Amino acid sequence: xxxxxxxxxxxxxxxxxxxxxxxxxxxxxxxxxxxxxxxxxxxxxxxxxxxxxxxxxxxxxxxxxxxxxxxxxxxxxxxxxxxxxxxxxxxxxxxxxxxxxxxxxxxxxxxxxxxxxxxxxxxxxxxxxxxxxxxxxxxxxxxxxxxxxxxxxxxxxxxxxxxxxxxxxxxxxxxxxxxxxxxxxxxxxxxxxxxxxxxxxxxxxxxxxxxxxxxxxxxxxxxxxxxxxxxxxxxxxxxxxxxxxxxxxxxxxxxxxxxxxxxxxxxxxxxxxxxxxxxxxxxxxxxxxxxxxxxxxxxxxxxxxxxxxxxxxxxxxxxxxxxxxxxxxxxxxxxxxxxxxxxxxxxxxxxxxxxxxxxxxxxxxxxxxxxxxxxxxxxxxxxxxxxxxxxxxxxxxxxxxxxxxxxxxxxxxxxxxxxxxxxxxxxxxxxxxxxxxxxxxxxxxxxxxxxxxxxxxxxxxxxxxxxxxxxxxxxxxxxxxxxxxxxxxxxxxxxxxxxxxxxxxxxxxxxxxxxxxxxxxxxxxxxxxxxxxxxxxxxxxxxxxxxxxxxxxxxxxxxxxxxxxxxxxxxxxxxxxxxxxxxxxxxxxxxxxxxxxxxxxxxxxxxxxxxxxxxxxxxxxxxxxxxxxxxxxxxxxxxxxxxxxxxxxxxxxxxxxxxxxxxxxxxxxxxxxxxxxxxxxxxxxxxxxxxxxxxxxxxxxxxxxxxxxxxxxxxxxxxxxxxxxxxxxxxxxxxxxxxxxxxxxxxxxxxxxxxxxxxxxxxxxxxxxxxxxxxxxxxxxxxxxxxxxxxxxxxxxxxxxxxxxxxxxxxxxxxxxxxxxxxxxxxxxxxxxxxxxxxxxxxxxxxxxxxxxxxxxxxxxxxxxxxxxxxxxxxxxxxxxxxxxxxxxxxxxxxxxxxxxxxxxxxxxxxxxxxxxxxxxxxxxxxxxxxxxxxxxxxxxxxxxxxxxxxxxxxxxxxxxxxxxxxxxxxxxxxxxxxxxxxxxxxxxxxxxxxxxxxxxxxxxxxxxxxxxxxxxxxxxxxxxxxxxxxxxxxxxxxxxxxxxxxxxxxxxxxxxxxxxxxxxxxxxxxxxxxxxxxxxxxxxxxxxxxxxxxxxxxxxxxxxxxxxxxxxxxxxxxxxxxxxxxxxxxxxxxxxxxxxxxxxxxxxxxxxxxxxxxxxxxxxxxxxxxxxxxxxxxxxxxxxxxxxxxxxxxxxxxxxxxxxxxxxxxxxxxxxxxxxxxxxxxxxxxxxxxxxxxxxxxxxxxxxxxxxxxxxxxxxxxxxxxxx
Length: 1269
Known about the structure:
Blueprint: H1 20-26, E1 36-41, E2 61-66, E3 72-74, E4 77-80, E5 85-87, E6 93-95, E7 106-113, H2 120-156, H3 162-183, E8 191-198, E9 203-207, E10 220-222, H4 224-227, E11 231-232, E12 240-246, E13 251-255, H5 261-270, E14 287-292, E15 294-295, E16 301-302, H6 304-316, E17 321-324, H7 337-347, E18 352-356, E19 378-384, H8 386-391, E20 402-403, E21 421-424, E22 426-430, E23 439-443, H9 445-465, H10 472-482, H11 491-494, H12 501-510, E24 519-525, E25 532-534, E26 544-554, H13 561-566, E27 568-574, E28 580-581, E29 585-589, E30 593-599, E31 607-617, E32 625-635, E33 646-654, E34 659-665, E35 672-679, E36 686-693, E37 705-712, E38 717-723, E39 729-736, E40 744-753, E41 756-757, E42 763-765, E43 771-776, E44 782-784, E45 787-797, E46 801-806, E47 813-814, E48 818-819, E49 821-831, E50 835-840, E51 855-862, E52 867-871, E53 880-882, E54 885-895, H14 898-902, E55 909-921, E56 923-924, H15 927-932, E57 940-942, E58 947-952, E59 964-970, E60 975-981, E61 994-1000, E62 1012-1018, H16 1030-1035, H17 1041-1056, H18 1064-1071, ...
Parallel strand pairs: 1-14, 1-17, 2-14, 17-18, 18-19, 19-21, 25-32, 42-62
Antiparallel strand pairs: 3-13, 4-7, 5-6, 7-8, 8-9, 9-10, 11-12, 12-13, 15-16, 19-20, 22-23, 24-26, 26-30, 27-29, 27-31, 28-30, 31-32, 33-40, 34-39, 35-38, 35-40, 36-37, 36-39, 41-43, 43-58, 44-57, 45-55, 45-61, 46-49, 47-48, 49-54, 50-53, 50-55, 51-52, 51-54, 56-58, 59-60, 61-62
C-alpha cells in the first residue's frame, strides 16, 4: 500500500489562515524586522529554541523584566570582604574571586529561596528528584538500621531496669521520628546567597548557585538590557534566569519564568528557526521584550502593579506592539485604574495592544478584560482550521473550519462587539528548557492573540520600511475592514473576521496619509456605552430611540493645530437591516456630534440579531467604515406552559462544534431552573458543554452563570439545576465539543421552579434568638425542605500599623513624573488550632482591572517571618492551611494619588476560617415549636401564592456557648414567655464575628444548587464565667490592710530582684528567709546573666528551697484520693503551691547540674565554676534529680522538658531529645534555637540527610526580613 510520508507542517504553527506565510514569501524583508514586541506573560525563557536571534543576527530578546516583584531580593545589607571572604546572610563564607573588580570594596548581600522562583511543574519535579537522590536512600538505610537495633534490644535485654527502659524509649523514639519524617517530608529547596556590587562601570550580581560559597563557579551578570546575558541555576532544574539591579544595588530582581505559557506565546509571535523555517513564529524578524506579569507568589496570577510596571517599561523602550494573553472577567467595561493606564499606552503613546478575548464561551457576553471589554485593545478570538486538526490534534476525521467551543463570545455588556478579529488559536511551539521538552501543544485565545500580534508585526515591519504613517487606530480599522468572513462562524465569535495580513497592509498603503491616520472615533451610545444592546424582556415590543455620539480624537503630539481646524469628514451612514433606522449623512469636524438611531425589534423572530450602523467617507467609500455602531437585539421566547413552566426541544441534532442557543424570558416568580438532557443515540457517548447565562448591570458575567462540561452516555441523561433572576433573559447554550466526532440527537428541556425566600441575603443575629423567614412561590405548587448549613467562621481584623510609602525607582514612575505611592497595612491574628484560612478584603475583592486602585497584594507570614502564602483580588483562589500559632499579614495597595491611600488606613480584612465540621440550624414551622423544641420542619408543601413561615433557632447546646435571654409577647395569652439558649462556639470567637454558609430550600439533592441563598449568622459576646469561690473566700480569715500592704510590698520586691543587682536580694531574704518566691526570683536573675551563669549558686539556692519544703508531706497529700476535711480547699491550694515551687526548684537544679556536668566533661569549665564544684556533679546526681521529678510530674510536661532535654543529651539519647523538642514545637510553636538543636541531634545520630534538610529549613523559616512587595 502506498503511503503519504508528508507531514502537514502548515498546521503546527498556523500561518496560512491569516496569509502570514504568503506575505513573507512575497515580502521576505518585512518579516517583523524593526518591530519591538512586548510579551506580557509568565516570563520568557531566553534559552528556549527559536528565541536567540533574528534572521539578520540581532538578539531576539532585547530585555527581560519581572514586573511582579516576586523575584526581588532585598540586598540593602552592605558588607566588606575580610581576607577575600564575605559572610552571606545564610551564614556561609563566600569566597570572592580575584577576577572580580569592585573599586569600593562594598558588597550588597541578600538571600533567596530558589523554590520561590520555580514554576509549580518544575518544583514538583525537582522535589521528587532531590528526594530520590538526597533523602530516600539514606532514609531507608537509617530506618532499617534503627528498627533492627530496637528489635535486637527487645530480644536481648529485659525492660525492668530504668536504664534499659530509657535505652528502649530512645530507640523507639528514633524509629517513630524517622517514620514521622518520612510521612511529613517537605523540601523547601535550595537557599542561596545573592551578591551585588559595582565594578566601576555598572552594577553586577552573582547568585551562589554552588550553595557552598565557591563564587568562582558562579555566573556574574549585569542587568539584562545592558549585555543580554543570562545563566542557568543548575543542570538539574534547567531554569534560565537573568537579573536587573535597582535602587543603587539595594534591590536585585531575579527574572525567571513562572510557567511555559509566556515562552510558548513568544515563540508563536516571533520565534526564529534557521534550520526549520516551518517552525518559525509569525514574525521571525521581530525582537522581543519579555515582561513577566504573572506573580509566582500567587500561582502566576497577574497583578495590577505588574501591569502598570509593564506599561512603564513598554513606554520607556518604545515598543511597537504588546501581546497580552491574560485576562479576567470584569464587572464593568472600560473602567478602572489599570484599564485606564493600559488605554493611555495606546492612545497617548501609540502602542498597539493585542489581547486574548477569553476562553469562557460559548455563551454570549463572556469576553474577558481587557481584551474584550477595553475599547483601546484589540481582542482576538480563537479559530481552528482543518490543517491544525490534522497536525496538532491528530483527528481521524477532518472537520470544517470553526471556532473553538470555549472561545469567548461578544457582545460586551456595554454593547461593543467584544471580539475584534480572530486568528488560529492553537500551536505547537517552544517551551522553557526546564520542561525538558523542546515544544508543546497549547490552545486558547492565549495562542490566537500572539498569532494576530505577530501578523500585525509583519504589517508594521512593512509600513516602517516604507515610511508609511500609521497609528493604533488606523491599524485597527485596517484589520477590521479587511477581515475574512468564515462560513458558519457567528459574528460574536469571529469579530470582524479572520485577520488577513496582506489585505490589511495593502489597505494601509492605499489609504495612507488620509485625514484619519491618527484619529480615533469614539462612539458613545445612550451615555457611555459602546453599542446598542437590547436583551431584556419588555424592550422588544416597541421602537427604541438611541442617542449616538461620535467624537473624533487626535493622538497626542501627532496632529498640528491646523489639521484639527481643517478636519471635516462628510460621512454616509448605512445599515443593512430594515429594523434599524438612522440618518443618511453626518458631517464630522473636531468635536463630538450626536444623532439618533431607532431600533424596532417588533416582528423580529426569537433569537439573537446583529447589525451595525457604519459610517463611510463619502469621498472614499472603498476604504470601508471609519466607525461602526454595533447593534445587538435578543428576542427571548416566553414560557407558554403556565402549569409546569416547561420549555422542551426534541430531536435536536449536534455536529462537532455545533451550538444551539435558546433565549428564554424567565417567568415572573421563578427562582431556579433545571436543564435536563437526554441522548437519543444508542451507540456512542457525546461530550457537551452546557452554558447558561444571565447578565445584570455592573456585575461580572460569572455572577449569574452556570457552566458544566458533561459526557452523556448512549441513551443517558443529565440534570443540572441553577438559580435564575426573574424577568431577566436566560441564555441556554448547548454545544457539542469541537473535537468530539460524530453526530448525536438530543432531547432537552428547561423547567422553572418558584420556591424562594422573601429576602435575597438572609442574615440572622444570634441575639435575636428565633428568626423568621417566609418561603413563597408565585409560580406553582412545590415541595420544600429548608436547611441551613454553616461552613465558615469569619473574623474581621483591623490593621495594627499602616504606612504610606513613596515607591523608589523608575519602574514605579509613570510618564510625566507621576510617582506611584503604596500603603502597607499590617494585620496580626492568632490561629487557635490547625485549619484553613482565606484572607479577604471586601472593599477591593473581585476587582482587578476595573478597580479604582492600582493593585492589592497580601503576603502571610508566621511569627518567624517565614512566608506562607500570598493572594490578591480574588480571595476564593487563595485558601491557606495553617498550623496553630501567631501570624502576620502584610497588605499593599498602590495608587499615584496619596490622598486616595489615606482613606484606607483602617481598612478591615476578613479572615474566613473553615469549620472542622459543618453546623446546622434547627428549623421549625411555628414560633411555638421553636420555643418549645417541638417537631422540626421536614418536607413542606408550598402552594402557589401562599406565605409559609419558617423559624430558625440559634445553634444547639453542643455547638455554641452563648447565653441568650429573650422576651416574646404572646398576643393570644397576653403573657410574656422568657426562654434561654446556650451554645458553644469555636475557641477564640469574639463579638463581631459571624458564621457564613447557605440556606437551601430544595428537597432533592440534584436541585439544591438551584435554590441556594448565602446565609450569615452574626455572633454575640460570650458570657463571663461566674466565680463560684466567693463562699470559700468568705471562710478565709480577713486580712488587715497592713497585712495586705506587707504582702504586696514583698511581692513587688520579689519581682524586682531579677532587675536590681545592688543587694536587694540579700536585704529581703534576711527579713523573709522562708519566702520561696524570693529564691526563685534570685535564680531567675542568675539565669539572665548574659556573661556567665553562676550554676553553683543556683544549686545552692535550689537546695535551700528543698530544705524549706516538706517533700514527704507533699507526696503524702498527692497520695490522698479524697480529702473530706473542712479546710480541704485551702489545704489543696497550699499543697499545690508548694508542689509547684518544688517542681520549679528541681527543674532549675537539674538544669544547673547538667550545665556544670557538660562543661566539665567537654573541658569548657569557666572560672566562675571551680573545678571542685564541677567534679562534685556526677551523672548519678542528675539521675537522682530526674527520679525526684518522676514522683511529682509527667516527665514530658512543658515545665520539665528544658531539663529532660539536657539530661537526655548527656545520656546521648538523641531520639528522646528530638521527641521532646518536637513536642515543644507542637504545643507552643518553634524557634530557631530548637531547630538548631534538632539539627545537632541529627548530626550526632549520623542522620546526614535530616541535617541537610534541616539546614535549608532553618534558613527558610527564620528570614531576617519580610519579603519585598
